[in-house]
Write a structure and sequence with these properties.
alpha/beta; 21% strand; Rossmann fold; 13 helices; 346 residues; three-stranded antiparallel sheet; seven-stranded mixed sheet
Length: 346
């Protein structure tokens, strides 16, 4: 397939996202000179011979890797390999590796140039796009981070053919999110193509990635540093991030539950109908994503109180006006607990 390109012209840099481009052509996008490659250990095992020329460090892709301890390890590695401001860093992997590679590059010597090869569905539709780079701290998601655009994001769809099923399903959580906040036709397409999505039909995967990147790149281009519109991309993430800390479930699964909670709250507000909520739940279940949690409102709220989206005693919470349109409301934390109590059991 011919690569489809999207461009983000941001204050922190310009980024080109290439969907359908091959990993074998990455050398065309890496500038000449010193190249340092930070890669997922599994990707190293199967594809290192396809990497561009340069020194390689392989990292475990688990969420525990996304820490300041790993960043310090990368800083030492940069130092040992004589990284300077002419060095180009390439992150090759899923969301964890792209996040930490981008953060390390963006903060070393006040910023090295870098680009990504996104190798998971989650990274291709969300994590690698938009210039947010960060690490977890004390178990809280992305508490330490920066905004800085990667020079390029290469999305080789053929890499998804060997992606573990749980990782594929996790990425679908973010695809559904994009449909719910900004693309009702994509939601309809997903309803009609559940088997194709789970079966990795290339045409279905291509539509999911292209539409998701189109939505995210448009939102980021308008609000790069999340002062307004970009907040809609946090739909499902307030509760989702809390569940990730409390239960250690995968990101897409946690966001799935968070989206269901947000849809039920949207129904309480009079935005969505009960039928709308059931429709969302049925799609998520069809994609093998969870829609419930055993965590109590008290446990969830305790984590939310440390959420970076909190402002004083209120939090920016994303709801749906309808399928395909999001709205951000400031909710006092004191009001959030009874709302969670009402929706957590359906």
């Amino acid at each position: 397939m011919k690569a489809e390109k999207f461009h983000i012209h941001g204050t922190t840099g310009e980024s080109t996202i290439m969907i359908g481009e091959s990993l074998d052509r990455i050398h065309q996008y890496v500038p000449p000179g010193n190249c340092l490659i930070i890669a997922d250990a599994n990707v190293c095992l199967h594809h290192q011979q396809r990497f561009p020329d340069g020194d390689v460090i392989c990292l475990d892709a688990g969420e525990k890797t996304k820490s300041l301890t790993t960043v310090e390890t990368l800083y030492r590695w940069f130092l040992e390999h004589a990284a300077d401001r002419s060095t180009f860093v390439v992150g090759i992997g899923g969301g964890v590796v792209c996040d930490i590679a981008g953060f390390a590059a963006a903060t070393y010597m006040r910023g090295l140039r870098y680009g990504f090869v996104a190798t998971t569905l989650l990274a291709q539709v969300d994590a690698s796009v938009g210039g947010k780079n960060g690490v977890n701290f004390q178990g809280y998601k992305n508490l330490v981070g920066v905004f800085r655009q990667p020079g390029f994001v290469l999305c080789d769809l053929t890499l998804l053919e060997t992606l573990p099923g749980t990782e594929l399903i996790s990425g679908m959580g973010e695809v559904v999110k994009h449909a719910l906040i900004a693309d009702a036709p994509l939601f309809d397409f997903l309803e009609q193509n559940i088997s194709g999505a789970l079966g990795r039909d290339l045409n279905v995967i291509q539509r999911m990635v292209i539409d998701s990147v189109r939505i995210k790149s448009r939102v980021v281009a308008e609000d790069e540093t999340e002062k307004g519109l970009r907040r809609i991309l946090n739909f499902g993430h307030t509760v989702g991030h809390a569940l990730e800390k409390l239960t250690r479930i995968q990101h897409g699964a946690a966001v799935s539950v968070g989206m269901v909670m947000a849809c039920r709250m949207s129904a309480l507000k009079g935005y969505l109908s009960p039928d709308d909520v059931r429709q969302v739940e049925q799609l998520l279940q069809g994609l093998s994503l969870p829609i419930s949690t055993t965590m109590t409102p008290e446990h969830i709220l305790d984590v939310i109180e440390k959420d970076k989206k909190r402002v004083d005693d209120r939090i920016h919470f994303v709801m749906l006006k309808r399928i395909g349109e999001a709205v951000v409301e400031e909710i006092p934390l004191v009001d959030l607990k009874p709302m969670l109590s009402e929706v957590i059991d359906g």
